[in-house]
Structures are given as C-alpha cells and as structure tokens.
Automatic annotation (TrEMBL):
Record domain SPOR: where: 363-447
Natural source organism: Mesorhizobium marinum
Family as reported in the entry's similarity comment: Belongs to the peptidase S11 family.
Keyword Cell wall biogenesis/degradation: yes
Signal peptide range in chain numbering: 1-31
Protein name per UniProt: D-alanyl-D-alanine carboxypeptidase
GO molecular function, one term: carboxypeptidase activity
Pfam families, sorted: Peptidase_S11, SPOR
Length: 447
C-alpha cells in the first residue's frame, strides 16, 4: 500500500521538482543587477520585449557601435575614404587588449581599423579613429554623446571610444537598440562590415567575437562587449524574410549564457515581428544634405516619462564645465571655445528640443559686433544652446539675431553659436556682461 501511495504521488513530486528547477534557473536572471534586455521590431519600432531596458548600464565594447557610426558618417560625407591612413599615437598603441598591436607611429587603413573593431573589438584601433576624427579621445567622446542625443539616445553618455571601464560612461538597452537600428538605416552601404566572420591582418586571421554569426539563421551582426563591471553584452540584428528585429542583452553572467538567452529571445520574438515596414525611418538622421534635422525617432524607441534621467548639473557650474577663461578673453589672446556638447549631459533632450521647437537663425552678419556663447562639433547642439540661451535671456537678446557659423580645427568642423546685430563693441560687451550675471558665459567678437 505504501508503495502504491508513493507511485501515485510521483507525478506530483516530479512537477514540484520541475518547478523548483525552473525557479533556480530564473532566480539568477532576476537577481542579476547588471541584466537588461530589449527586443525591438526594426520595421515598426514596436517594443516586443523589455526588461530593465531604460536602466543605466555600462556599454563596454558596445561603445564601438557609436565609434563606427561616426566613422561611417565621415566616409559617407567624403571626409574619409576606406583607404585613408589612421596613424596610431602613443596613447592609442598603449591601449590594453584586445588590440591590433600597432606600434606608436604605425598606421593602418580606415577599412582595416573598421574590420578590427567589428571582429576583434580592437581598443587601439578605436582610440586611433577617435583621435583622427575628434582631434583627441576626449573630443571624440563629446562628439559621440552629441550624436547620441541627435539619434534620441537620451540615456547615454560616452567618455571614450572603446568602452574600457569608466564609471561615467553609461547607456541603456533601449539606446543600444536605437543605435543598432540607426546603423542599418543610415549606412546600409557599410552595414555589411558587421557580418564579417573573420579577416586577415598580417599573418593573423582575426575571428569575429560574435558567436551567433553562422549559428543562428538570419543574424547579421552587430556587436559584443564585456568588462567585469558590465557583464557580457550583445546587440543582434536578425532578419527572416520581411521580418527584422534588433535585440539587446546586457549584463550576462557568461558569454554562453548571454548567447543562449539572445538565441531564445530571437526564437521567441522574431516570428511575432511585423512583416510590413512602417512609414519613414525609425531613427532620424542627424542632418540631411540641406542641413535640416528632422526628428522621427519613434516614441516606442524612447524612454517613458518615468524613466531615469541623468542628474542635471547646477546652472551655476556651466561655466566650469564649458571651460571658458574669462581673463583670456578680456586680454584678447587666442579665442577660447565653449564646448557645448557637454551641455548634453545637463539637458538630455536639448538637441531634440532644438529640432522640435527651433529658433530661426539668421544669416551670418557681414559686419558689426556679435557675442559667442558656445561652439560644438554638432550643429544641432549649437542651435540647442542658442535656443536655451534665448529662453534664459529674452530681455538681454530681444534685438539680437542668433546664428551659427563654421570653422575647421584639426580636421573637425565646429559650429560657433553666436548672437549678432550689435552696433558697437560697447553694446556687445554690455550684453555679454548681462548674460554673465545670468551665469551664461560669452565673449564679444567683431565680424
């Protein structure tokens, strides 16, 4: 009898055992504070799955997706060619592995640098590209953050081009999905680089770190990443006929568990994606050939109103972050530049606001006096600062005309943000003095 009772209860015991095992499997994912994931329909922008998708995470080498975005942008605009030379500085060659191992003073082509990023995730190549495009690693990081804002990536701050540990460098799974979609939409002519399985460099054949290429049908990139602080990260673009998704997993405990989880997300959600493309691009290009910057990033790709946002910097500290030197200006020495891209950290939606509610900028005055409030490698950021300044000092600038003008420095085009229309030096100086009382740094300049 006792034996029969045991047999009769066996199915129930097996069910309980299965439930316990399931709980043990699920518990680590739930307890993993580094974990975040999202699956986005790349045809419509609809979020199919998300978990902590708007929580700040360390991007690690997913950072190189933005490094490549800016490289592709330079190629598309003609500023670079795939055959252009990328020279490795002492700083670049000293980056820790993984790396190509180019000695200081050595060089590779832009195409080789690109291939080393998408396969080996070479940190030295990332820094070398950053220095070529941004003049310095820090300057390029500001360009990266400005570009992130233009693409609607409101939860992202970049401090370097490679993703090596930096506590201030943060992103979100949703932002990485936005960037993944933008790379394909904006640069289809270069996107195939991400599907490179391996490439030959010297006597070496470098394999792609993305193990899902060739393993999961339809996977065509994009990027892996790992640091101890971030865990194992992966962004995948996948297509099946007319269906396409971009999926992100951040904070995996191992490369295998990350890959297995990504494979499961793909199997689950790709069949549920739409086979019909929505109208227009999901992610707005920063600027078209006419210089206009429409914002079409879908609300589905952006954090909701309850999502965490970077802490704003105190208004009174803007001058310190901008780096303007008042005494230098007064003494008439070399022109200082206020790097407005740092303002993106203080006001994450400033660039988007400048596009949604832009001020009318005038033509560059041919003569007279003006006051400059900022300069940036991003025209959108420069215009955003003009908008912000106009709103903060309407009384001072009531009769002034905002405008931007360009200049080139170390191969980078910068946009000066200025207010013109002042009849005399004194008028411009007085207006600038009034702005400084409002904690807005500036200086007067004659056209």
């Amino acid at each position: 009898m006792a034996h029969r009772k045991f047999i009769s209860r066996k199915p129930a015991l097996l069910a309980l055992l299965a439930l316990a095992i399931g709980s043990l499997v699920a518990a680590p994912a739930q307890a993993n504070s580094k974990y975040a994931a999202i699956v986005v329909d790349a045809n419509t922008g609809k979020t199919l799955f998300s978990s902590s998708a708007d929580e700040p995470r360390y991007p690690a080498s997913l950072t190189k997706m933005m490094t490549l975005y800016l490289t592709f942008e330079a190629l598309a605009s003609g500023k670079l060619k795939t055959s252009s030379t990328v020279t490795f500085s002492k700083n670049a060659s000293a980056e820790p592995p993984t790396k190509l191992g180019v000695k200081a003073g050595g060089s590779v082509t832009v195409e080789t640098a690109i291939l080393s990023l998408v396969t080996k995730s070479a940190n030295d190549s990332a820094t070398a590209l950053a220095e070529k495009l941004g003049g310095s690693e820090a300057g390029f990081a500001r360009m990266m953050t400005a570009k992130a804002r233009q693409l609607g990536m409101t939860g992202t701050i970049f401090r370097n081009a490679h993703g090596l540990p930096n506590d201030a460098q943060r992103s979100t799974a949703r932002d990485m999905a936005t960037l993944g979609i933008a790379l394909r939409e904006h640069f289809p002519q270069y996107y195939d680089y991400f599907s490179t399985r391996s490439f030959k460099y010297g006597k070496q054949r470098l394999a792609n770190h993305n193990r899902l290429l060739g393993r999961i049908k339809g996977v065509d990139g994009i990027k892996t990443g790992y640091t101890r602080a971030s865990g194992f990260n992966l962004v995948s673009s996948v297509s099946d006929g007319n269906r396409r998704i971009v999926a992100v997993v951040m904070g995996g405990r191992t490369a295998k568990s990350r890959d297995d989880h990504m494979a499961e997300l793909i199997r689950t959600w790709l069949p549920k994606a739409s086979g019909r493309r929505g109208g227009g691009d999901l992610v707005a290009k920063a600027a078209d050939e006419s210089g206009k910057s429409p914002i079409r990033a879908l609300a589905a790709l952006l954090p909701g109103s309850g999502a965490p946002k970077p802490k704003p910097r105190p208004e009174e500290n803007i001058a310190a972050y901008a780096g303007i030197e008042e005494e230098t200006v007064e003494q008439g020495s070399a022109e200082p530049e206020v790097e407005v891209v740092e303002q993106a950290y203080a006001d994450p939606i400033a660039a988007r606001m400048a596009d949604i509610d832009p001020i009318n900028t005038a033509a560059v005055p041919k003569s007279g006096w003006a006051i400059q409030v900022a300069s940036s490698p991003s025209e959108v950021e420069a215009r955003a600062f003009l908008t912000r300044t106009t709103r903060s000092a309407r009384d001072v600038l009531a009769s002034a005309s905002p405008y931007t003008m360009t200049y080139d420095k170390d191969g980078v085009t910068y946009y000066r943000a200025r207010f013109g229309g002042f009849d005399s030096k004194n008028a411009a100086w007085n207006a600038c003095g009034a702005l400084k009382k409002k904690k807005i740094d500036c200086y007067a300049v004659q056209q």
